[in-house]
Design a protein that fits this description.
Blueprint lengths: L2 H6 L3 H10 L3 H18 L5 E4 L4 E6 L2 E8 L4 E5 L17 E4 L4 E2 L4 E2 L2 E5 L5 H8 L10
Antiparallel strand pairs: 1-2, 2-3, 3-4, 4-8, 5-8, 6-7
Length: 143
């Protein structure tokens, strides 16, 4: 899908809901930048974007949720779901506020984790978020 078409799936009214929900302006700025980065980086993979009353933005590929941004009052909690086909070394460290691999996402044959959550609320952690999202393949092959 084209980047502009994807961005248009989250309208101004929804952005107002996120703005009203977040307590700090910097978190809203991080949300905008993160959304832009995800859409621009994964545009060839993303087929749909859904929002949940100013609480979440979910990205879908082939009908399956691959990434979700949960908007809390103080930060963003990002989920990389197993259908994203990302693989993470269990010893990896990322420069974000906090992260954890999902216990049930360990892939025995590769020795890597396939899903994780991470938290971000400050722009200084944006490079770490980009690094994590960079693990998601940009093509729909083998889904």
């Amino acid at each position: 899908m084209k980047v502009k078409s994807l961005k248009d799936l989250v309208n101004k009214e929804v952005w107002k809901q996120y703005s009203a929900r977040l307590k700090k302006e910097e978190v809203l700025e991080v949300l905008h930048k993160l959304f832009e980065y995800i859409v621009e980086t994964l545009a060839t993979r993303i087929e749909d974007i859904k929002t949940d009353n100013g609480r979440a933005i979910s990205f879908f590929s082939k009908g399956r949720e691959i990434l979700t941004i949960n908007v809390t009052r103080k930060d963003l909690r990002i989920y990389i779901h197993p259908p994203a086909r990302a693989f993470f070394n269990p010893e990896a460290k990322f420069e974000v506020e906090k992260f954890r691999f999902w216990e049930g996402s360990y892939h025995k044959s590769s020795g890597k984790n396939r899903a994780m959550s991470f938290w971000i609320s400050k722009m200084k952690y944006f490079p770490g978020a980009r690094e994590i999202i960079g693990h998601i393949p940009k093509t729909k092959e083998e889904e």
